[in-house]
Amino acid sequence: MTTQPTKNRSSLWAEENVFRDLPPAVARELEAVAITNSYPSGAVLFAEAQTTRGIFVVLRGRVKLSVCASDGRTLILRIAQAGEVLGVAAAVSGREYEATAEIQEPSEIAFMRQSDVLRLMRLHGEFALWVTQQLSQNYSSTCREIRNLMLSDSASEKLARLLVGWLDQNPESKHPGQMKLALTHEEIGQMIGTSRETVTRIFAGFKKQHLIQVNGSTLVIPNRVALESLITA
Amino acid sequence: MTTQPTKNRSSLWAEENVFRDLPPAVARELEAVAITNSYPSGAVLFAEAQTTRGIFVVLRGRVKLSVCASDGRTLILRIAQAGEVLGVAAAVSGREYEATAEIQEPSEIAFMRQSDVLRLMRLHGEFALWVTQQLSQNYSSTCREIRNLMLSDSASEKLARLLVGWLDQNPESKHPGQMKLALTHEEIGQMIGTSRETVTRIFAGFKKQHLIQVNGSTLVIPNRVALESLITA
DNA sequence: AGACATCGGTGATTGAGATCACACAGCAGT
DNA sequence: ACTGCTGTGTGATCTCAATCACCGATGTCT
Fold first, then answer.
1. CB neighbour list of residue A104: distance below 8 Å, 6 or more residues apart
2. Distance between CA atoms of A54 and A37, rounded to whole angstroms?
3. Whose CB is within 7 A of strand D?
4. How distant, in Å, are the alpha carbons of A21, A30, A142 from that of A15?
5. pLDDT in tens, B12-27
6. CB spacing of A138 vs B136 below 8 angstroms
7. What phi and psi values does residue A132 have, to the nearest 5 degrees?
8. Of A25-29, B127-131, B143-147, which gets the smallest average pLDDT?
9. Alpha carbon distance A9, B87 (integer Å)
10. Are A19 and A130 in contact (CB under 8 A)?
11. How far apart are the C-alpha atoms of B181 and B198, rounded to whole Å?
């Protein structure tokens, strides 16, 4: 939770190009009202059903967004990456947060108070449009999540969908179809709505069919097409 | 598909109070670029994966929003009522529509082109804020939908949740706990992600336990609390 | 080291719901 | 009347994944 020097902070805004589509004057005004902080893994930015305080911009790191049932079970909506904005819907509509945001790995997060957000949105249509675009991206990815969850009864299909989705997200770096597996089986289960055990079993099945390989925490997908053929099944 | 006289149209905007939170000048500008039309049941405003054209404001009637799987199965996201705005996410982000919008009962719908929407959002922060609020409402209701779908394994719990949700939506008119059942069992199944037969069976079970009564197309819920006790189970 | 926690792997059992296959009611149109 | 068509009601069967129970592997504290 060490505070970063100011120089480092402003470079992060530029580095991530968060406000790339905004006029420089507006961007400066935004950076002026924003408060940047470092968070450790496990820290909670906001919790489901809390009254809204403002929006959070992920500058670096990863944040887990989830909702939870009365019986304690959890559903992970998505993992937010650098550049994403959280809590927009709640802040704009003045409602409670609909999900819980928990830090997954040490992260830099900028915060903007609800009052500042609303004031600046009224003032600068450009900024308001930007906020809406962020929200609409969250909305789209949530819709995709629903499709993946509901429109495939078999758990293997859901997992296949999840993996293919990860391939798309990841930059096609050196070796294609290779990625770090940052989630436990339990968490993967919470993403696709199944139990931990079935995730293990399906992974085992995929390995047997040579659809995936696991070396330590590295996941290799040698044959993306084969995996995709499970979808639509 | 008969066109309404202009007088009737403008009265609909006022009647529904769609732009109640906007300065009158902005509201007039919006009504100027909007195109209002009547649609019959079954008409499709836009389909999943179509390129975006603009946003639709429901002035009167009901619109079914759904996504569909490759195998033809369908999931209904929600039924939009008068006052709601559709296609915002797609229009703002320039992406494809994420869902299909089909008219459920004869409706009046206003259309605004994407270019007009974006131009007026940049121009009037107030309008941009309004758009964002509409979108955030859609987002919230979608999140609630997910919770209802995923965080309850038993199908009866899902159905109970759906019915209670309908009670909340409906105005507490003359007799409380009474509503028109505008959906078929098949459609209800598509809303909670189960088969038509299970819906029938669960309804039968609920009747047996005196949790609901059905007279023709009227659904009576004499004891809301009993129904709620099924939730959380 | 040892103790403790978290994570991954596997078998056996079980139940909820999908699916298939009918039957029947209501309602439109000819 | 007779024919379709759409929506509802019910039984029989079967499959997939939840659940329980246990074990081994790998960390990580003190």
1. A41, A61, A62, A63, A64, A79, A182
2. 14
3. A 153-156, 193-195, 197-198; B 153, 184-186, 196-197, 200-201, 203-204, 214
4. 14, 16, 27
5. 777 677 888 899 999 9
6. no
7. -65, -40
8. B143-147
9. 37
10. yes
11. 17
